[in-house]
Each structure stands twice: as structure tokens, then as C-alpha cells.
Design a protein that fits this description.
6-stranded parallel β-sheet, Rossmann fold, globular, 2 domains, single chain, alpha/beta
Length: 364
């Protein structure tokens, strides 16, 4: 159980609050439940979230947010790559002018790295809260006026984010629902599945999400392993649906899994945004996939998950405890590791039979 050692006696007064969690998708998803506690305690406050472009679309489903502020990372990177320093300078000037003009009086830096700490400082907010090391990294806590002391020194990301709320002393009950699924998107996806899958029955639908972003390919289970899992689920009477997120390169991997499934699996309709992927996942009975953002999203939506875990830390990346879940993991000498490897033996050694056994048990 995570404990805050320096909880405030009284929560700070605030009328304009900035949440900072820049990325990645899974980390943003896991911050939403804790951050939503702010809305309950500060019902009339203006609450904004500073995020990078790739994770922005999931915040479109967070109805209690007043504003989403985009840090133009992709545009800055493109300008710098092309040597357009004037363009990069203009982008930064415009961004910081907009940030300062919002007159934030409280910053909650859930990211707590150097970049997020600097952005919080440059927002002009008089009070800035961040994690002390080891939860805070890269000296980002030096930009904060309040530094949270948590123990023990390792916990799940969900617990760590609740630690920010515990520090404020405002209660850790999230708003309900955490994410709002657009009924129009959900209904359209449901209709498409009825058209595409013979004998479609939503109670038999299992989402298999084989992909991961190109930068985290080491989190992927094997093509043949996923194919065998799909065939096993189909044989048990379920409808395996192959889904993928908006990250580049994922669909090609999913196509390979589709071929390995030998007719036992179906392609999902296109989900070009994280909000549409959330709507699709909400239709399923079970989610099977690696330790990625979509897995944590499914868990927060109340969809039971089977987490296929290899190189990532099993404590830090525990799924949401409010939803049934199980994990398949092979403990070898080199995992968990920081960056993974191309061979990824911790993933390739996972048994399809073990995945199926746990999946059928959770479905029951």
C-alpha cells in the first residue's frame, strides 16, 4: 500500500488548475482516474490538461476536463530536423504565450521529469506540485514548490497517481464514469460488427490487440502464438476480434496474426482515434494483449484483461484493480528490463496454452 509521508493539512485553494502528464498513451490513461478526483473537490475550477499530440485523443473522452493543451512536440521536432529554427522559435513563443495567458494558480505535475517541471514553471503558476525522487526523475522536482514523499519506492502507476491526490488531502474517489463513450461511435461499430461477422454475438466477442508502437515492438507477443490463441478461442465458441491502435506499423503486424489464425479471427473496423478504439473495446467480453496503452484503457473501461507481460515491470504496470484481470509472464534472468531487446525471449517463451487457460477461466 502506497503511503504519502507529507500530506498537506489543508488542500490549496485553486480556481485554475493545470494537470501535466505529457505521454505516453498508457501513462495518460492511468492518470485519468486520479486526476478526475480533482473535479469532485474543485467542482467550479477551470481544469486543463497539458499533453503531447499522440495521447491527445483519449482526453476527448474525459468529459470533466475544461481544456486540453497540446505541447507541439511533433511540430517542434519536424522544424528542428529541417533546420527551421525560426519556425521552432515561433511555435514555442506562441505556445508559452497561450500557456501563460491561462493564469493557472496550481500545477499538478504527474509526469515529474525535467521537461514537465520546466513547463509547469513556465506556466507562471504560483504553486507547483511534483514527486520527489525516485518517483520524480531528471531533477524535475526542483521546479516544484511542493514535493511529494511516497513510500515504498515502487508501486503501480495507478497507486502513484493516487499518491498525488493523497498529498493534497482531497479524497481519492474518481468521478463516474472516468471515460465517456460516445454512443454514436459505439452504435456504428456495433452495426459494422454485425455486418462483418457471421452469427455475431456480443457476449462471445474477445478483443485481441497484438500490436504495440514501433518504439515498443519488444512488448509484442509472437505472431504464431497469437494465431494459436485465436484458434483456441474460436474452438471454444468465442469470436476473436483483432484490434489495433492508431500507432504506425501496428496494422501490418495484425495482418500477420490474421493469417496465422487461419480463418479463426476477424479484423476489427478501423479505429483511427483512441476514443473510437475505446468505443470498440467497450463492446467486448475480454481483452487479450501486451502491456500497452490499449490494455490499460480496456481495464479502465471495465473489460476484463489478460496481460501478456515480458520486459516491463510487473509492479509498476499492474492493470486497474477495479476490473478482473490475469497475467501471463515468464520470469527469466533479464526481466524486467528498461528498454527490451529484439529477441525478447521473455515474450516468445509465453505459452499459448497458458493464455487460453487463463482467458477461458476469466470468461467463465
Amino acid at each position: 500500500m502506497l503511503h504519502c509521508q507529507n500530506q498537506l493539512v489543508q488542500a490549496p485553494k485553486a480556481s485554475r488548475i493545470l494537470i501535466i502528464r505529457l505521454g505516453a498513451v498508457g501513462d495518460v490513461v492511468r492518470t485519468v482516474p486520479a486526476a478526475s478526483c480533482l473535479r469532485k473537490y474543485y467542482p467550479d475550477a477551470h481544469i486543463a490538461w497539458l499533453v503531447e499530440p499522440k495521447a491527445k485523443t483519449i482526453l476527448d473522452s474525459v468529459v470533466w476536463l475544461d481544456k486540453v493543451v497540446i505541447f507541439p512536440r511533433d511540430s517542434l521536432k519536424e522544424a528542428a530536423t529541417k533546420g527551421n529554427l525560426l519556425t521552432a522559435g515561433r511555435l514555442l513563443r506562441t505556445f508559452f504565450q497561450d500557456l501563460r495567458s491561462s493564469d493557472f494558480d496550481l500545477v499538478l505535475d504527474f509526469h515529474s521529469i525535467f521537461k514537465s517541471g520546466l513547463l509547469g514553471f513556465l506556466s507562471g503558476a504560483a504553486r507547483r506540485v511534483a514527486y520527489s525522487p525516485p518517483y520524480g526523475k531528471e531533477f524535475g522536482h526542483l521546479f516544484a514548490t511542493d514535493r511529494i514523499e511516497l513510500s515504498p519506492t515502487k508501486s503501480s502507476r495507478f497507486e502513484r497517481n493516487r499518491g498525488m491526490i493523497s498529498f493534497l488531502g482531497i479524497g481519492t474517489t474518481s468521478v463516474d464514469p472516468v471515460f465517456s463513450i460516445e454512443s454514436g461511435i459505439r452504435d456504428a461499430l456495433h452495426a459494422r460488427l454485425r455486418e462483418d461477422i457471421p452469427g455475431f454475438n456480443q457476449e462471445r466477442l474477445v478483443c485481441i490487440n497484438p500490436g504495440a508502437s514501433s518504439g515498443a515492438a519488444y512488448k509484442r507477443y509472437t505472431v504464431d502464438g497469437y494465431g494459436e490463441v485465436a484458434r483456441g478461442l474460436s474452438k471454444a465458441g468465442y469470436l476473436p476480434l483483432l484490434t489495433w491502435g492508431p500507432a504506425s506499423g501496428e496494422r501490418d503486424f495484425v495482418k500477420a496474426v490474421y493469417n496465422a489464425a487461419k480463418g479463426a479471427a476477424y479484423f476489427s473496423p478501423a479505429t483511427p482515434s483512441l476514443a473510437s478504439l475505446a468505443a470498440l473495446l467497450s463492446l467486448s467480453r475480454l481483452y487479450v494483449g501486451g502491456d500497452t496503452g490499449p490494455m490499460h484503457l480496456a481495464s479502465l473501461l471495465g473489460i476484463p484483461v489478460i496481460q501478456l507481460m515480458g520486459p516491463t515491470d510487473p509492479i509498476e504496470n499492474t492493470p486497474y484493480e477495479g476490473t478482473p484481470w490475469d497475467r501471463v509472464r515468464i520470469d527469466i534472468a533479464c526481466n524486467p528490463c528498461r528498454h527490451g531487446c529484439a529477441a525478447a525471449p521473455c515474450m516468445s517463451l509465453i505459452s499459448p496454452e497458458e493464455i487460453l487457460r487463463k482467458a477461458i477461466r476469466l470468461l467463465a
